[in-house]
Amino acid sequence: MKTNCNVCFRRCRLEEGQTGACGARKNVNGTVTASNYGRLTALALDPIEKKPLARFFPGSNILSVGSYGCSLRCPFCQNYEIASAREENRHAGSEGLHPVTFREGNRQRTLETAVYTPDQLCALALDLQSRGNIGIAFTYNEPLIGWEFVRDTARLFRLHGMRTVLVSNGMASKEILCEILPYIDAMNIDLKGFTEEFYRDFLGGDLAMVKDFIAGAAQGCHVELTKLIIPDKNDSEEEMREMTAWIASLCGGRGREIPLHVSRYFPRYKWKVPATRVETVYRLADVARETLKYVYTGNC
Predict the structure, then answer these.
(1) By the 8 A CB rule, do 61 and 133 touch?
(2) Fewest 10 Å CB contacts: which of 25, 195, 209, 265?
(3) Which pLDDT belongs to residue 93?
(4) Domain boundaries, the chain
(5) In degrees rounded to 5, what are phi and psi of residue 81?
(6) Looking at residue 111, what is its pLDDT?
(7) For 77-123, what is each residue's pLDDT tens digit?
(8) For the chain, how long is the longest CA-to-CA vector?
């Protein structure tokens, strides 16, 4: 029986056993579930500023976890190995590890994923409190395609007085936001550009859905935004002014206090144009400061 996924704008209609475009949601017995539930490809204790979050518990550390799959197709992806990975099979590999595969040029490569339960992650996070850990951050790949694991883990962390951070592209429906928002303390959301054409043709996404997600998230938790500046794609002053005016209008006009991170692009994955000039990042950050109270630069 075909079943629709309700996470992103694609609304993939999946046959029994079929996996969606994100690589991590699958029709199992007529229900679309996260096949990457609890399957981690990355685990690290990071400074909170790396998420990046500048105005949420600065100076603290946070347990950062990533899985595999993504709802976008960014040609400049910094984590393409896990973002483009797909489940290899349903059987555990050596030492209980579960392989996923991704393509690099003409070669297929394999990654191992280790399975963690929310309880196991919570115990690990509690052990790391002595090293300044305040909770957990879902990051590296796109967490919202496995929102069930985010919700279940965040709910448990809240019971133990720890914080949950989500680092996301924001391309998810209001239904999914309503499921997770009560348990999320902070988000950094990528607002990668501010034209429908850029999102549709360059990223394979939907700007309207991202804007709706940001607007809803800002009503319920601490939100910071990141814009990666890509030469000749999203680097005009006009676009920055239009984008920051929209940000400022959020939360009944209090959006001017939403922090914006203006970040420098470097060649990666399929996009090989030279890195953004540092001067361009600083200039666009100054443009953003015409409207927003808190503007930061990154990768410079």
Answers:
(1) yes
(2) 195
(3) 43
(4) 39-76+117-298
(5) -60, -45
(6) 75
(7) 999 999 988 876 544 444 455 676 666 566 777 777 899 999 999 99
(8) 55
Structure tokens at 77: 């992806």
**Dihedral angle computed from the Cα positions of residues 78, 244, 56 and 176, in that order, rounded to the nearest 10 degrees:** -70
CA 187 to chain CA centroid, Å, is 9
β-strands 107-115, 163-168 pairing: unpaired
The top-level CATH class assigned to 39-76+117-298 is alpha beta
Count of CB atoms within 10 A of residue 269's CB? Answer: 16
pTM given for the model: 0.94
CB proximity list for 282: less than 8 A, separation 6 or greater: 297, 300
The three-state secondary structure class of 226 is: strand
97-104: which pairs have CB atoms within 8 A and are 24 or more residues apart?
A: 98/39, 100/39, 100/41, 100/68
Answer whether 142's CB lies under 8 Å from 72's CB.
yes
Q: Shortest CA distance to 2 belongs to which of 14, 10, 18, 19? A: 14
pLDDT of 244 above 60: yes
User: How would you classify the pairing of strands 3-4 and 42-47?
Assistant: unpaired
Can you give the pLDDT at residue 103? 64
CB 5 within 8 A of CB 14: yes
Contact status, residue 229 vs residue 260, Cβ threshold 8 Å: no
Beta strands in 49-191 (DSSP E): 61-66, 86-87, 98-104, 107-115, 133-138, 163-168, 186-190
How many C-beta atoms surround the C-beta of residue 168 within 10 A?
A: 26
Helix (H) or strand (E) holding 216: helix 207-218
DSSP secondary structure letter of residue 200: I
Nearest Cα to Cα of residue 223 among 268, 187, 273: 187
